[in-house]
Amino acid sequence: MSAGPGSASGSTAGALRHVLSHLATPLLMCIGMGLAYLGAFHAPEPHDLRVDVVGSGASAQVLAQTLQDKGDGALSVRTVADRDMAVNHLRTQQSFGAYVPGGSPELMVAGASSDTSATVVQKIFTEVAAGQGAPLQVTDVAPTADGDPTGQGIFFLLVAVSIGSYASVAVIGGAGAALALRIRAVLAIGTSFVVSLIGAAFAGPVFGLVDQGLGGLWAMAWLYSAGILLIGVGLHTFLKRWTTFGVMLLFVMLNFTSSGGIFRPELQPGFFGSLHSFWNGAGFVEGVRSHVYFGGHALGGHLLVLVLWFAAGLVLVGVAGAAEARRRREAAEKVREVEKAREAAEQGHGAVGSARGAVEPVPGAAAVRASAGAEEEMEEAVGV
Questions:
Q1: What is the pLDDT of residues 272-288, one digit of tens each?
Q2: Collapsing DSSP states into helix, strand and coil, what is residue 234?
Q3: Nearest residue to 185 via CA among 306, 310, 304
Q4: Which residues contact 368 (CB under 8 A, 6 or more apart)?
């Protein structure tokens, strides 16, 4: 018997509803990416950007106070006694520019800390030097590697490692859904190892983003990638098809924008600046900068951020494992209920078959209905 027009219409409507429900994910990603990227990057401006004026005399004090007042919150200007102290502040990322006034004014920056921050500082002090009628000499006391002249290669390395990590979550969670969680967790760890090796190859022999410390960079890339993969695998147990949006929110929208790879927090709105202190992307970017360019200054804090995200992934996998075990127990209980219902139905049919022919008694029908209902509940419990 062929299906009627009403049946075809109902099938089309159901398929349309299914497609529309799945379109919610890319539309939310579009909104989220627009809010995150434009909110973080569309109008960068300094706030409390730390700079030093070198000198202990009255003229240095006046210049520092003038810049502070004129900046109206954009700068945090301090005076330091000598050039060596100013260089130390730059190499420990306590400041982002140091101005040495005089007949031949000099501006010292640390390009490896942030190219965009150095550019902002240079623009400010070029105007200061021009007001004094002298050209400005710029000295970079912490330059980047030749293969990364803007210092933003580390950020794009972050992007590559992140995509390799969160995209693998969809594969492990989807194609590997039938595997035990412990096997999926092992796959996550193994995948993070491969992703980190690819990242290290990009940073070293392929593009020369760094000229030293490649082993430490690889270790941080593995820790960063493993944290993403473990968190994603754990989330998949609970979010299912929403996992893609969840990992995009965590590791793209909030992560890339707060990493400091393009603009440091001193040039961003407060929300993204606050995330910079504890988000995993910032831990990776700042950790690599510290390790490669700043002699390991504050490296421990950045490593702690990565370790905590990795630990969060382990905890989430553990919680997901407990949830999946509970679901298996519930599913097994439903199976036992189905088997009991079937046995009751068969016994009911057998008892009345010889006496009443093919007429099914009410108790047998009830048992069959109970069996069907139990099967439906079991399917829901296991996510069919």
A1: 999 999 999 999 999 99
A2: helix
A3: 310
A4: 341, 345
